[in-house]
Amino acid sequence: MTDSSQPPVESGVLDQMLIEVMRRTDTAIGGLYLLVPETGIMHLTVLRGAPAEFFGPWLRTPITAPIPVAEAVRTNRVVSVTGQEEMARRFPRVALVLPYPFSVLAAPLTGTTRCWGGVFLVWSAEQPPKFIRRERSHVASAARRMAEAIEDAVRAGLPVVPPERPRILSGAEELVPTSAADFAERLPGGCAALDLEGRFTYVSGSAASLLGRGADQLVGTTPWHSLRWLDDPVYEDQYRAAVFSRKPVAMTAYRPPDHWLRFVLYPDDTGISIRVHRETADVADPLPDPPGPPPDAGPPRRAGQLYRLMHLATVLTEAVSVADVVDRVADEILPAFGAEGLIVYHLEDGRQRIAGHRGYDWDYLRRFEDISFDTVNEPGVQTLVSGVP
To answer: Is pTM, for the whole model, over 0.85?
Structure first.
């Protein structure tokens, strides 16, 4: 539906505008949405300071979604949230998926012809109302400049189409200098570094020894993918907390077969530095099995996936009828996966019935309605009978 090679404006222009306002306001995370008016869907187009996975439920989101940037676009005004308590009260779905202390300002990209989307900025802690009021003018001014840049591009004949995936702007891409690596090797314990996507960018020799894998096997991977004993949402959530709070986070993990490791994560706008050493506290004997499911249970869900499921579950609790359920599921699922249609089936008197749908006309749907469970070649019947997708 889109062509990422044809952005609505030179990508560097919007990117630099976002970077400039983030520097001016000293924000940790920021992003820009473009609105497709025909669908009423906002697409996350540019993101800086966090991985796109953190915003999984809202990579594509309807303008009606109860999130700050959608409210800013919907009401054509700047929206502010000054901390975790206010977020939980006003935007509980956001607080559920991102249960960390942070503050937000969001502003619409309103031009002379229409609203083109919205921009949001995140501070990594609760901010006083006086601070937020002072920064509102910076955010509103940046939003106007972004809208003007988009309209200049439109007048020049460029299409207004968001990319399939948001552009992720990195704070730094530099390799660790040799002298710094030598310094890290002299320190007690081990040292490592993650980028904001959670991937190892550096692992000292002593850290590799403590982790039980070679540095060459770790660099470029995430800890929960390359180290099975860290493959648990609890540990990934600590990394997410460090990225959002921009404050040190400490955790202890059991590394089979015989010891505990202590990790301290030190985040900033370019990544996370990690100190790791053996835990000296006495541990009860015998040592427990490593966290996570047994080997035959498949990989555990990622922390972000669990939050996404909770988000959908929360949305469904607001439904009061079958039609509401269909609408809520469609609003969440279709934008998330870029799908154009959805059909919800149910079983009634041994026949497949359509409970609701989105994106199809009834003439097309007739072929799927009132189908006997004896029709073995129909995918919907097979799924309902077998319980297997």
So the answer is: no
